Amino acid sequence: MTTKTAKTIFWIGTALTSLWFGTSGICELTTNKIVWDITLKLGYPAYFIYVLGVAKVSGITVLLIPNKLLRLKEWVFAGVFFDIIFAFFSKLIVIGPSATIDALVAFSIVTVTYIMFRKVYPASYIS
Fold first, then answer.
1. Which residues are CB-neighbours of 49 under 8 A, at least 6 positions away?
2. Upper half-sphere CA count for residue 23 (Cβ side, 13 Å)
3. Burial environment of residue 56 by CB neighbours within 10 A (0 to 12, 13 to 18, 19 or more)
4. In this structure, are residues 28 and 35 in contact, taking their beta carbons and an 8 Å threshold?
5. What pLDDT digit, counting tens, does each position of 56-90 carry?
6. Gyration radius (Cα) of the chain, Å
7. pTM for this structure?
8. Cβ of 106: how many Cβ atoms within 10 Å?
């Protein structure tokens, strides 16, 4: 795979991840009824929803800055993976398996995006 192909896949994945988690973060910060009802149903406290929204919007902002803050992008990817894993298991336990499809799709998109990130920016480049 060429670097150009990896960069293209990385930026498409970054755009999809940003759209997904940015929208979610904004919905959390603006107390969108659908998002809040689901999150509260999962047992998370209201204050946590605001913190999650700030983390998502901040993380997406970092991801969208080209060729900068590479180490911080690593942390953003870790945070996104934690968010997906917690959402998956929370929904699986509280709502049921059919509610986890979005988490599985998000996990797939973010995994491919992270793999392409590592191809575009090898570990030696990030230090």
1. 28, 35, 36, 39, 40
2. 7
3. buried
4. yes
5. 999 999 999 999 999 999 999 999 999 999 999 99
6. 15
7. 0.91
8. 21
Residues 9-23 have pLDDT tens digits of 999 999 999 999 999
Backbone angles phi, psi at 45, to 5 degrees: -75, 155
Closest C-alpha among 18, 52, 60 to residue 35? 52
* Separation between Cα atoms, residue 13 and residue 57, nearest integer Å: 16
Count of alpha carbons within 13 angstroms of residue 57, beta-carbon side: 13
Please state the length of the chain.
Answer: 127
Q: In the block, which residue shows the tokens 């670097």? A: 3
| Domain-wise residue ranges, the chain | 3-117
Give the span between the Cα atoms of 112 and 119, in whole angstroms: 11
